[in-house]
Amino acid sequence: MGEVTPEPGLDSTLRDQDEARVKLPRWPKPVLLIVCLGLVAAVGASGLLVGYKLRSSTEEQIQAAAAPVLVTARVQYQTEQLDPVNGTIGAVATYQYLPVAAHYPGQMVVTKLGPSLGQPLLPGGLITSIDDVPVFGLPLTVTLWRDLALNDTGTDVAGLNSALKDLGYLRGHVTDVYSAATAAAVAKLFAHNHFVAPSTQPSAESSPSAGTIPSVSANSTATTPAAAVAGNFLPMASIANFPNGTLLVTQAAPVGTVIVAGQPALTASGPVKAIVTKIDILHQQKLTVGTAVALHSVAGKDLGPGTITTIGTFTAGDSTKTGADQLNGYPISVSFTSPPAAASTAASTDTAIHSGDQVQIQFPNLADSKLAVPTVAVRQSIGSTKVLLKHGSTFRTVPVTVLWQQGGWTAIAATPGITDGDIVVVSGK
């Protein structure tokens, strides 16, 4: 083949075109490195700036939260009211008359009433009448254990004579002999209650006291028959022994009621006398004998005024006992200024009270109004009690004397420089 000879100038033209295609502008390597480092620095600076801003905001919030807030209140008058205390109606005597079936031949039927509900059951008065046998109440030192007749002797006779003497029926000295004077006194007891005293022991066939044994003297010798004189014989069924003192009838079986064994024909209770409880040292410092109080039932019913009658010395509570005896404190008793409703009237009034009932004792006359500050504003330091007062932009510490604390307030004694309406610092300073 023949040799191809390039055209003149073509080779140089192609070489120029190739150089033109691949020859791109390039940064020098030092410049590129500087640019990259600058970009990295810029990004880092931006991150630092953002972090600083976030940190700054958080620190401001923390500092703002940690900054003390000044809390103040005004000095003002507050009234202290002693807290009420609960007391218990003191135990009172309760009496029931239970007829003895052996004293009566048939059914035990009520034939006459004694006092009605709410009336007093008095010594020497009629309790009831069972099968026309009157029953009288006497406070005896020794309960009769037998029928008595003229010339009987014994401790039961002495107790009977003593009770008749106290009632004014027996004249002369008290002896242990059922004498003519005793018989006369028994006759007066029956007559005063509109009954006739028996003169002799009725026969077993007609006696309402059938089943009783013949009267025997203390020396176990049979009594000598006596003339038929009222009062010469006294069936033990006619005398009931009950506690000394006035009793109020709370239950009485109506006429015609058949009394079964163990069922009371009459129930009576002593009148309420006092409320007993214990108080703490705060009450003890403010209460005195004669202090007037207000009394309410636990249901809130007004029971009228009362008066503190005794305040004892501190005694420790006893967990084995009940009521006020379980408490630590100063024992007190409170009497009713006006007699409350008797327990016998409980069916007709909601103010009736009974032994063992709870009564709230209030102290309305002991309200004590004093200048006071919030208790949290009182500052304690060694040997002193003080408050911090704020006057405009200035602050002043003032020593105070605490009188009492109640309901979040502390009463202070009259103090120069502290008046009603002053601003006291509670916290933050």
Termini gap: 115 Å
How do the strands line up in the largest sheet? 3-15-18-17-16-19
What structural class results from the helix and strand content? alpha+beta
Q: How many strand elements?
A: 26
Strand proportion, as a percent range, falls in: 25-35%
Q: What is the 3D form?
A: elongated
Output the number of helix runs: 5
The low-confidence runs, each spanning 5 or more residues with pLDDT under 50, are 204-224, 342-350
**Radius of gyration, rounded?**
51 Å
Fraction in helix: 10-25%
State the major sheet: 6 strands, antiparallel, barrel
Number of domains: 3
Q: What number is the mean pLDDT?
A: 81
Can you characterise this structure?
With 429 residues, the protein is α+β, with helices and mostly antiparallel strands. The relative contact order is 0.15. Residues 204-224 and 342-350 have low confidence and may be disordered. The chain has 3 domains: 71-80 and 368-427, conserved putative lor/sdh protein from methanococcus maripaludis s2 fold, CATH 2.40.420.20; 85-91 and 271-362, Efflux pump adaptor protein, beta barrel domain (Elongation Factor Tu (Ef-tu), domain 3, Beta Barrel); 99-263, no CATH class. The protein contains 5 helices and 26 strands.
